[in-house]
């Protein structure tokens, strides 16, 4: 086994025969690991370990691969032996699938499985998983909501209408709130993307929010981020009194996206005191939540979002929802206004205005996440 660990390394050994479902329980022990690369100690779990312990290890495996990935080629060749792995989310899915076999009563595990299937665009499988939840708990609000909306995107309007009717019976107030959110999102999906700097933006209480993009392993900025910065810089020059918020907290070589963006803007002549760093977020949902806290603190009423065209509708959706949430939490109505300017990552603006089914799924998935429905209950928003 020591030779096997050296051969596979941490990322492959983390899953081992835990996920070889047909033979998992025939084995005498299951190698696994903690979820952080800083603590790579591998332990061995016998199959007669307590149920909660085995489930906990499977959740750790899922979250490890969700964040860090692993050597899929070796895992497929030397561990899974016949199971085709197309990406790290295959491992996440298999881990949650195994966990649901160990505890078929745990609905949170089923929600996590369905979320991973949505990420992988396995829509029929995800809908079936939500259906299992509803068979066990017909009045589960979140399951009815997710099943209904994803069914609609998938072309099943009847299932959507039935789900909405059920939601109104379960909790009419909450159902009407989500109906409003869905209508707002539909309006955003159909809104115009702007490639030019808007005229007549407010000269007061206005901020330009430039959304980050993952840095290269050496800490350098990739082209999409550079292009977003160029768009943001053009707006900043035209509106010299506007604050600039740069977002992104995933570090590479000791620097976050926000820090790299700030350094670049300063090198282009932007005053340092105009720039505010949001350097804790790991994805678009956290961009919105953490940036909205800054907007509240700074008293910003008008926001111009800057990101890629393929990302803008999702960004507008989650920022609007985050802003509405902060209003509700603070018992006020900020009437915060959002405008947009995009880096055009399509051949033409006409192509950019078209919304694919895949984009719709991601938009609504992140709407639900920012509204408070965790993607992986208790593990990952």
Automatic annotation (TrEMBL):
Q: Give start and end of each DUF218 domain.
A: 207-322
Repeat listed as a keyword: no
Q: Cross-referenced Pfam families, in alphabetical order?
A: DUF218
Entry keyword set: Signal, TPR repeat
Keyword Signal assigned to the entry: answer is yes
A single GO BP: peptidoglycan metabolic process
The record's listing under PROSITE patterns reads: TPR
What stretches of residues are TPR repeats? 107-140
Give the source's domain of life in one word.
Bacteria
Gene Ontology CC annotations of this record: plasma membrane
Which InterPro entries does the record cross-reference, listed alphabetically? Cell_Envelope_Assoc, DUF218, Rossmann-like_a/b/a_fold, TPR-like_helical_dom_sf, TPR_rpt
What SUPFAM superfamilies does the annotation carry? TPR-like (SSF48452)
Q: Which Gene3D superfamilies match?
A: HUPs, Tetratricopeptide repeat domain
Signal sequence bounds: 1-26
Name of the protein this chain belongs to:
DUF218 domain-containing protein
